[in-house]
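so im writing up the methods section and need the Extracellular solute-binding protein record in one place, dumping it here so i stop losing it
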Amino acid sequence: MKRREFIKASGLLAGAGALGGLGGVAHAKDKVTFKFDSYVSETAGPSWLDRWFLDQLEKRSGGVVKVRRYWAASLNKVGEHLPAVRDNTSEMSLISPGYYQADLPVTRGLEWYFRMNRADALLQVCRDVYGEFQPLRDEWEKRHRAKVMYWTNWNYAPLITRTPIKSLDDIKGKRIRGYGVATDVIERLGGTAVPMAAPEVYTALERGVLDGVYGFDFITAVAYKLHEIAPHFTDIGDGPHAPAATVINVDAWGAFPAQVQATCNELVDEIYGGQYSTIMNKVLRDYVKKATSEGVKFHVLDDAQKQSAKALIQPAQVNNWIDSVAAPAGIDGKRMQALIDQAIAKHDAKGTLLRPSEIALQA
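--- predicted struct ---
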């Protein structure tokens, strides 16, 4: 039963190809209908914000807007959503850059760990850099014909393991599933990174193929019941996890009536103005309560261990992007990272969204 529940949660639904021909924004007597297409389930971390946006857009439009929602890769498979938006076969989608590393080299400059503290502040950082660094906007809007409606992220990603992690030494040699730049963190901390699609993780843990998981945000990990096999959730001091973007095809956006565009912009302002924090604070607290009741053990590395981990990751991680990704692609990586540093200095101290371990300690 647990296995079947996981498969259901991961949502790899059959027959997605049959829906592939539904393209374009539909207008009829001032009605606007479009598709929102996500590779994750509606209970995954960023989905809570996406659902709020879509619900409010329909509500505030007074019935003008109707969104057809396709969750959990039910329309396009993992890795197909960026080209689907580019080609306008799916007008709007959640995009996680780690799945498109070759297609989003500039955006990869926003992916790092051990550089800031709060997930709500990461939204502000991404927004500022998108507004100030033209190559980042061009990558989305010109290369992929996708307007970033709003930046989002996967809040926090504890190190999830079958056995307790009390120090960095406990990570060495462990086989840990990674995602995107999280694989680099695992390797630098002495673990063995194992690339693996999310729907395979539960079974791999169950069979002992994996010792742990990293780069799986807390909410999604609990929703996918990974804690049934790996109940130890450790805060290693890495900061917020995995920036992502909810994007819309530029032609679809241009076809929206002015009032619908205005409503979208109003909602985006509310997201950056605190709505993200309000939504995620409640969800995180609910999931901490659920996780604790179902046997999750929260751990936090001490400050000395966190500093040792940070020294292994930064600035090596950022410098590697500058040298091996930005430079070959003709990107001014140093300028982009300087803008990021400025944005972090401006926003991070104002962030308020607690990590799951911090919430657990308050209970």
